[in-house]
From TrEMBL, chain A:
It is an enzyme of class 2 (transferase). Residues 3-83 form the GST N-terminal domain. InterPro entries: Glutathione-S-Trfase_C-like, Glutathione-S-Trfase_C_sf, Glutathione_S-Trfase, Glutathione_S-Trfase_N, GST_alpha, GST_C, GST_superfamily, Thioredoxin-like_sf. Keywords: Transferase. The keyword Transferase applies. This is Glutathione S-transferase. Its EC number is 2.5.1.18. GO terms for molecular function: glutathione transferase activity.
TrEMBL record, chain B:
Belongs to the GST superfamily. Alpha family. Its EC number is 2.5.1.18. This is Glutathione S-transferase. It catalyses: RX + glutathione = an S-substituted glutathione + a halide anion + H(+). InterPro entries: Glutathione-S-Trfase_C-like, Glutathione-S-Trfase_C_sf, Glutathione_S-Trfase, Glutathione_S-Trfase_N, GST_alpha, GST_C, GST_superfamily, Thioredoxin-like_sf. The lineage of its organism: Eukaryota, Metazoa, Chordata, Craniata, Vertebrata. Keywords: Transferase. GO terms for molecular function: glutathione transferase activity. It comes from Sus scrofa (Pig). One of its GO terms (biological process) is xenobiotic metabolic process. GO terms for cellular component: cytosol. Residues 78-158 form the GST N-terminal domain.
Length: 223, 298
């Protein structure tokens, strides 16, 4: 039963991208079935595949998993990227939840009304600089190891490095004063699986442009 | 004058029992007593609890307040300590889970922005935010990290990765609806009716049917693995909030109602549901203002 996981989502980053990163970093090949119009989404809903009528949905090991965190937790456990015990898992969870909080702000930026956008961007930059990046830099400094938890690659490193790419996309200068984070980004990016995922032609998705955003709005029916 | 610790303990217990707290708030509770309250001289009852604590704390000139003693007991007994303001917010699901698991816990309430600053400045808050729970030598932040740890520790997280996946799916759905309800008090008045309507609609058409269907599909007493898990506890907590919003919302979901009754009748949960427990009431206007002040929300 070594079927590849199948990812159901639209052809863009959204809430599926962190799952693509984790699978790719774990060296797991996966298929994608893109939702191109509202009908595709209705079809999935109507055949009972979506517990809460929402995507992301990942078919894996005979299950149709929904909810991003449920999917990430399962993949991380399956591929030994979730620490060695409950205490390591607690640290990993703390860090990944912080990553998710900042990531959520960046994710929702394209949906922000134009007149509020500058303020939102400023807020994201401020939180990156004063809250999130310093916290992770401090963790790395505290133990001086190559990875955030347990001296071993975990989902926390992968999810943080993904976020660092988005922070850099927003404003490269934001990473300037965080040498250990920059080193982690380089180190993780050079892992063979990640390196491959970062190259053109991989399943990694580009930033959401206007066209993609309009398509997503139509599919998911939000304003 | 040298304060006899034993006598101070006795006095404090007397006071607390009569609804008078010598220190008022938790922030001032950490200071030492300055002058002996006059009623000390009237105190003659020897309190057995005080005698027990006397064995732990030899006579000293430091006088402990009730709050300090509770915290010392908590630390020594290994009780988790919850840091939050005195309201539901993002800590309530953690209180529910601990209570349902039969775990005693202490609470240190944040009453002012300065209390929050103090926690931030002494490095206790990884992202300068609460909830924060001191447990097993860690200072855990982030609600989900805390819930995951507690669920694992008390065997409320399923027996393997697949059960965990189901539990996670269900609890994330609960969290999505719970988040809408949580943020309702912060909604501008002109948007509130629309928001309430949206919550009711999503409850009726998306979330409640999904959970009812799960229970129907296997006909078992609990959502996952025929055994109580965090999914049942967190869902039942949510059902109470849905009911608070509008009792008729649960009308067409007999299996959910049965689950709610079943879980509510578990001894630990039953106790938590009774008045005087650490369960917090719905947010009122006053509480909302307090929270906005503490967390510096406009």
């Amino acid at each position: 039963m070594a079927g590849k996981p199948i990812l159901h989502y639209f052809n863009g980053r959204g809430r599926m991208e962190c799952i693509r990163w984790l699978l790719a970093a774990a060296g797991v090949e996966f298929e994608e079935k893109f939702i191109e119009n509202p009908n595709d989404l209705n079809k999935l809903t109507n055949d009972g595949s979506l517990l809460f009528q929402q995507v992301p949905m990942v078919e894996i090991d005979g299950m149709k998993l929904v909810q991003t965190r449920a999917i990430l937790n399962y993949i991380a456990t399956k591929y030994n990227l979730y620490g060695k015990d409950a205490k390591e898992r607690a640290l990993i969870d703390m860090y990944t939840e912080g990553v998710a909080d900042l990531g959520e702000m960046i994710l929702l930026l394209p949906l922000c009304p134009p007149n509020e956008k500058d303020a939102k961007v400023a807020s994201i930059k401020e939180k990156s600089t004063n809250r999130y990046l310093p916290a992770f830099e401090k963790v790395l400094k505290s133990h001086g190891q190559d990875y955030l938890v347990g001296n071993k690659l975990s989902r926390a490193d992968i999810q943080l490095v993904e976020l660092l790419y988005y922070v850099e996309e927003l404003d490269p200068s934001l990473l300037a004063n965080f040498p250990l984070l920059k080193a982690l980004k380089t180190r993780v990016s050079n892992l063979p699986t990640v390196k491959k995922f970062l190259q053109p032609g991989s399943q990694r998705k580009p930033p959401t442009d206007e066209e993609s955003l309009e398509k997503a709005r139509r599919i998911f029916k939000f304003k | 004058m040298v304060w006899c610790n034993f006598l101070q303990l006795t006095f404090e217990d007397e006071n607390v029992g009569q609804g008078r707290h010598p220190r008022g708030t938790s922030t001032s509770a950490m200071k030492e007593a300055d002058t002996p309250p006059t009623s000390f001289w009237c105190c003659s009852v020897i309190n057995h609890k005080a005698l027990w604590l006397l064995q732990l704390y030899p006579l000293s000139i430091h006088s402990f307040t009730q709050v300090e003693r509770d915290q010392q007991t908590a630390i020594m007994a290994g009780k988790p300590i919850l840091h939050y303001f005195n309201g539901r917010g993002r800590m309530e699901c953690i209180r529910w889970l601990l209570a349902a698991a039969g775990v005693e816990f202490e609470e240190k309430f944040i009453k002012t922005p300065e209390d929050l600053d103090k926690l931030t400045n002494d490095g206790s808050l990884l992202f300068q935010q609460v909830p924060m729970v001191e447990i097993d030598g860690m200072k855990l932040v982030q609600t989900r990290a805390i819930l995951n740890y507690i669920a694992t520790k008390y065997n409320l997280y399923g027996k393997d990765a697949k059960e965990r996946a189901l539990i996670d799916m269900y609890t994330e759905g609960v969290a999505d609806l719970g988040e809408m309800i949580l943020l309702l008090p912060l909604c501008p008045p002109n948007e509130k009716d629309a928001k309430v309507a949206s919550i009711k609609e999503k409850s009726t058409n998306r979330y409640l049917p999904a959970f009812e269907k799960v229970l129907k599909s296997h006909g078992q007493d609990y959502l996952v693995g025929n055994k109580l898990s965090r999914a049942d506890i967190q869902l039942v907590e949510l059902l109470y909030y849905v009911e608070e919003l509008d009792p008729s919302l649960l009308a067409n979901f007999p299996l959910l109602k049965a689950l709610k009754t079943r879980v509510s009748n578990l001894p630990t949960v039953k106790k938590f549901l009774q008045p005087g427990s650490q369960r917090k009431p719905p947010m009122d206007e006053k509480k909302l203002e307090e929270a906005k002040n503490i967390f510096r929300i406009k």
